[in-house]
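User: quick one, sequence for these tokens?
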């Protein structure tokens, strides 16, 4: 990014993001979701667990006349009140996240929607297999009615 200010960027980056002559940029992890996201990541040879969104290189880090801060990470603590309950802003943010990944708009996440969320968060290790995998696991140890 060059010559930008006041931007919020939700980013997936396989390399370090770069800013130059920019200020008041807020970085957060990529939060896109759609039905073929995992397929497109694979086809582009991108590893969702290898996201460098927070490893920003600032070409003007030293000796710059630009207003501060040049960049910052999104403040996730603002999602909660001092007592640990979800703040009003947090409820709005969480609702936006839920709605973004509820691709079929049925008010609940199916496995595909949950996995899209996990991939967007960079938690590829937490992606759940197809439910038939569980069925075969239980069947192999004679647990369950299958």
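Assistant:
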């Amino acid at each position: 990014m060059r010559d930008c200010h006041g931007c919020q960027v939700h980013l997936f980056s396989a390399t370090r993001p770069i800013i130059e002559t920019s200020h008041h940029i807020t970085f957060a992890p990529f939060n896109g979701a759609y039905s073929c996201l995992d397929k497109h990541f694979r086809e582009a040879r991108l590893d969702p667990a290898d996201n460098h969104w927070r490893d920003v290189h600032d070409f003007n880090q030293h000796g710059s006349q630009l207003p501060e801060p040049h960049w910052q990470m999104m403040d996730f603590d603002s999602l909660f009140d001092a007592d640990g309950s979800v703040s009003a802003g947090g409820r709005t943010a969480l609702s936006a996240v839920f709605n973004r990944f509820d691709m079929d708009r049925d008010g609940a996440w199916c496995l595909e929607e949950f996995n899209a969320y996990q991939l967007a968060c960079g938690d590829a290790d937490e992606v759940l297999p197809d439910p038939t995998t569980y069925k075969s696991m239980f069947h192999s140890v004679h647990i369950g009615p299958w």
